[in-house]
Amino acid sequence: MATDASPKFQKPDLLPVPQPPDFHPEVIVSPVHDGLHFWQFMVAGSIAGSVEHMAMFPVDTIKTRMQALGACPIKSVSLRQAIGSILQVDGAAGFYRGIGAMGLGAGPAHAVYFSVYEFCKKTFSGGNPNNSAAHAVSGVFATVASDAVFTPMDVVKQRLQLSSSPYKGIWDCVTRVLREEGFGAFYASYRTTVLMNAPFTAVHFTTYEAVKRGLTEISPESANDERLVVHATAGAAAGALAAAVTTPLDVVKTQLQCQGVCGCDRFVSGSIRDVIRTIVEKDGYRGLMRGWMPRMLFHAPAAAICWSTYEAAKSFFQELNSGHKSSTVT
Questions:
Q1: R_g over Cα of the chain
Q2: CA 19: distance to chain centroid?
């Protein structure tokens, strides 16, 4: 009897396919954050934004004080002098003036921010998770939408943060601005904010996705176990780089939002060019980098906190959805 099977009865498709020695299959981390409902992205983003801004609010106050020009008390870009002035004039509570306005604005704005980002990323990426251009464009769309929500409360927040602010609180600031300057005052800096945040967000999201991908590839076998560290590290790098690049426009934004308050200059036209010219005339080109250090100190940990919280919230919703599907099937 013949012991060898005829070739036509062999099934080569069931045999293992030999691979070259240097073959490394692409490691794809399990998509634990996919398949969420739109409202879940909004809730995750709202939680992340609120936690981020509340945790880092004192640093944001220092930045605002350092960037405000005119007759405002802080004339130096020294971080130590800014902190000392706040403690001397307002005490420790001065670091938290305006935090209520931040709380009212950050939650809704970040809900819009992340939900628009996720929707656009899914639309523009074409199924390619490594599409950097899609991440950048999605980030720009997200910031344009979220800035429309956040800018009015950001104006209130920064005016309350100024030393010797004439406003008693959020409601007093809102009513007085409406009465004395009109509704347009809440959006005087919107154009500048978008022009600042569009490149900020493009750099931020592109850097975040790139660093996250790079860290995942370094240790793919533990990518899921260490995803919190990966998100935090990638977020910190993205926040610091984006903050440094866009500081000059952030200074311009502060001037427009605080104009006419606490002796700060008022700009008739409100154009970016006029504000930049005024800053350069008063403080030279270095004035455009006022507050760069606290801005980076704010955005690096803030982005780490934000992304870690956001991804953790998405993981929670993913597990919730998986459990719901399992119970439905059984």
A1: 25
A2: 43
Kindly report the pTM of this predicted structure.
0.70
The one-letter amino acid at 190: Y
Place of tokens 């670091």: 95
pLDDT digits (tens, 9 = 90+) for 161-204: 887 788 989 999 999 999 999 999 999 889 888 888 878 877 88
- Helical H segments across the chain, by residue range: 38-55, 57-67, 79-90, 99-124, 132-161, 170-180, 190-218, 227-245, 247-258, 272-283, 292-329
Distance of CA 135 to the CA centre of its chain: 13
Residue 209 near residue 135 (C-beta atoms within 8 A)? yes
- The continuous run of DSSP H or E covering 273 comes out as helix 272-283
d(CA 46, CA 39): 10
Q: Tell me: pLDDT of 149 over 50.
A: yes
Tell me the torsion sign for CA atoms 220, 226, 227, 233.
Answer: negative
CA distance 319 to 27: 22
> Based on the number of CB atoms within 10 Å of its own CB, is 196 exposed (0-12), middle (13-18) or buried (19 or more)?
buried
* Residue 174: Cβ within 10 Å count: 17
Count Cβ neighbours within 10 Å for each residue of 72-89 and write b for 16 or more, e otherwise: bbbeebebeebbebbeee
- Residue 55: what residue type? A
